[in-house]
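When time allows, look over one protein, given below as sequence and tokens. The question is which stretches look regular and which look disordered:
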Amino acid sequence: FATPRAKPGEPGNVTLEMNSDDAIPRPGRRVVVTPYGPHWPASFAMLRKRVAPVLGELAVRIEHVGSTSVPGLAAKPVIDLDVLLRAAADLPEAIRRLEAIGYQHEGDKGIAGRHAFHALDAGDIPHHLYACVPECAEFARHVALRDYLRSHPDDARRYGELKTQLAARHPEDINAYTAGKDALVRELVARATSAA
């Protein structure tokens, strides 16, 4: 999901941040949006089953977020997992444990309190894994938006249609795709967070 957030040091200034790293320009990276994949919940469950025992007591929650977590919603076929850590002090140990099972720590990528991990196995289920400290607002926004879209199918359909149109219009330009979703995503996030 794209979610607005304030830039550090600039209260009230809202920018668009992407859960799946879409804001990072990547030449040659195709924008692919597919109809909902009924196998996505099982893919999440497999990834959760791998990560949960390794993180153990460090993980308070492991949530399937992003568009693949909303039944019926068209999405880029990449599973997003947000792990809520027990405490910020647990982050170094979480990094160590995830690296031990083949993840590379990529830092916070500009979103305070949320650390990205990349699976080093190229044949793995396409996914993004994020470890979030308890005070991470991004975690709360992701869960709120997911829950909102699950319970508001008309808004989910509208969002999916827009993503499909933008992917067809900008198949080689992830930044244009992302910018095209900005207004609707802001609207949906505002509804989701006010309803939560």
Strands lie at 2-6, 14-18, 59-65, 79-85, 103-105, 114-119, 127-132. Residues 174-195 form the longest helix (22 residues). The CA atoms of residues 53 and 59 lie 9 Å apart.
